[in-house]
Amino acid sequence: MGVIVAGAGIAGVACAAELASRGVDVTVRERACGVGGRLAVHRHAGRPADIGAAYLTVSDEDFAARVRCWRDAGLLREWTDTLAAYEGDARGPDSPGPMRWAAPGGLWSLVADAARGLDVRTGHPVTAVRPGPGGRPVVDGEPCDAAVLAMPDPQAARLLDPDTAAGAAVAGRVWNPVLALTLGFARRDWPALPAAFVNDHPVLALVADDGDRRGDGAPVLVAHSTAAFARAHDTAPERAVPELTRAVRALLGIVADPEWTYVHRWPHAAPATAREAAFHLDDDGVGLAGDGWGRPRVQTAWLSGLRLGRAVAARLGH
């Protein structure tokens, strides 16, 4: 019967790849038309801009080994270990930290690389996961050896019976929304910065120079809103574009209007609170993985999927 993984973001693909490497028959089902999840890009005139996660950091050796492979393949590069920091509209001292890694083709390319050789069925949503006999769950009426939901908790909750262990694990979990605005300009007209944390601002939480991040110098910025601002524009995110644009221009002192903009709403960008557990796997054969299991980071999502894959494989005797 094999394992069904719902969600082709980095956690789901990491889980499926680990299962496949151990000889487990695994299928990935993804409701969108492609892989990547919240490591998404928006393409304008063929050029990608990261509109989900802004970068990744590394502190775990398992993930570091994978990052080295992506670097050696030309999919990742070291970007910066220092970001700008704003308090409201005022720039303060820069914020040093760990090395941030960026992807010339967009972070989406990492998921696409990890998914090579897997049975990934895009445009194939999962609608219900229920317990079945003998600890084997049923996914949309199809029995399987195990089911993995690699997605934000609110999405997983819609697929699960709330009276099951997995349903209880995701019930009531609050996630924050974000609006991601991409702005393309005729030329670069802002202070040099790779990206900036924006604190105590009514609209902005982060601004990234995508040309610097991608390494091509394109005059493209990507701004992330605060959760409160995203909630205020929940039903019509496109109406938030003028205010978001004004906020970015005021923050960076940009005189010109952008030549084009694109806004994307992430209803479940990040969990409001973190967990300590790396994943969930219960006696019903249902597993849960993603960046909601630990601190919300790209590394967290990848490790969550990897470790759940190992646990599922062990449960199945592989």
Give a topology summary:
Layout: E1 3-6, H1 10-21, E2 26-30, E3 41-44, E4 47-50, H2 61-72, E5 77-87, E6 90-91, E7 95-102, H3 108-114, E8 119-122, E9 129-130, E10 138-139, E11 142-143, E12 146-150, H4 153-159, H5 165-170, E13 175-184, E14 195-199, E15 204-209, H6 210-214, E16 220-225, H7 227-232, H8 241-252, E17 260-271, E18 280-281, E19 286-289, H9 298-315
Parallel strand pairs: 1-2, 1-12, 2-8, 5-14, 12-19
Antiparallel strand pairs: 3-4, 5-6, 5-7, 9-10, 10-11, 13-16, 13-17, 14-15, 15-16, 18-19
Mind explaining what this structure looks like?
With 318 residues, the chain is of the alpha/beta class. The protein folds into 2 domains: 3-40 and 108-172 and 275-315, FAD/NAD(P)-binding domain, CATH 3.50.50.60; 62-106 and 175-271, Polyamine Oxidase, Chain A, domain 2 (Alpha-Beta Complex), CATH 3.90.660.10. Helix content is 27%, strand content 31%. It has 9 helices and 19 strands. The strands form 4 sheets. Strands 5, 6, 7, 13, 14, 15, 16 and 17 form an 8-stranded mixed beta sheet that branches. The protein is globular, with a radius of gyration of 20 Å. The model has no long low-confidence stretch (mean pLDDT 97).
| CATH homology-level superfamily of the largest domain | FAD/NAD(P)-binding domain
Helix/sheet category: alpha/beta
Overall 3D form:
globular
CATH class of the largest domain: Alpha Beta
Question: How many domains would you count in the coordinates?
Answer: 2
- Helical fraction equals 25-40%
Q: Using only CA atoms, what is the Rg?
A: 20 Å
SS elements, strand count: 19
Which stretches are low in confidence, meaning pLDDT under 50 for 5 or more residues running? none
As an assembly, this protein is single chain
Annotation field: number of helices = 9
- What is the level-2 CATH architecture name of the largest domain? 3-Layer(bba) Sandwich
N- to C-terminal distance: 14 Å
